[in-house]
Design a protein that fits this description.
Helix content is 25%, strand content 36%. By secondary structure, it is α+β, with helices and mostly antiparallel strands. The protein folds into three domains: 33 residues, no CATH class; 68 residues, 2-Layer Sandwich (Alpha-Beta Plaits); 57 residues. The strands form three sheets. The chain has a five-stranded antiparallel beta sheet. A four-stranded antiparallel beta sheet has the order 7-8-6-9, covered by helices on one side. The N and C termini lie far apart (35 Å).
């Protein structure tokens, strides 16, 4: 599994990065929504849309199935709308998570790329400013939540356009004192 642990945050062309060593002492670097492991491997984080039964234990079953397979949820949430449960969860390996969940008879409705954005937390109004830029670029934000590293996760209808907005936003970030 590729997951930054104890990230040391830095900047690479204005994109927040996290570094860590896994149990095999392989160097890991995370940049935005791309996670690299070694020189030839690249994986994009994925949001899975999951249908959940609206009953006690449905989320427990999801978590137990993933835990047995050694897969971690990197962010997300679950909601009940009109009596139906729906979850959006972030994974480093969406295909593996999908296989595990479907084997456990949990319905995965979609697997989508995400755009990852770190907001400038000390500046009020960041969500509105970023969302306005996305809207001005014609990007519709379909799902929004945070990951475990306090980054904004966006599922959008136009990933390339959203990434351009995100990259411009990140380049414009004021330098840290």
């Amino acid at each position: 599994m590729i997951r930054p642990s104890s990230p040391e945050l830095g900047s690479l062309a204005g994109v927040a990065i996290g570094t860590s060593f896994d149990d095999h002492r392989s160097f890991r670097v995370s940049t935005g929504s791309i996670v690299r492991a070694g020189p030839d491997q690249e994986t994009r984080m994925k949001d899975l849309t999951i249908a959940l039964e609206n009953r006690p234990g449905a989320l427990a079953e999801l978590g137990e199935a993933l835990g047995r397979a050694g897969l971690s949820i990197e962010g997300g949430g679950a909601f009940v709308v009109d009596g139906k449960g729906i979850g959006h969860f972030l994974f480093h390996d969406g295909a593996a998570a999908r296989r595990v969940l479907e084997a456990a008879k949990i319905t995965v409705l979609a697997e989508q790329e995400v755009v990852v954005q770190r907001l400038r937390q000390g500046e009020p109004g960041q969500l509105g400013k970023l969302c306005r830029r996305m809207a001005n670029a014609g990007v519709n934000i379909q799902v929004l939540y945070s990951d475990h590293d306090h980054q904004l996760i966006l599922v959008v209808d136009d990933v390339p356009a959203a990434r351009r907005v995100s990259e411009a936003w990140t380049r414009e970030a004021p330098a840290s004192p």
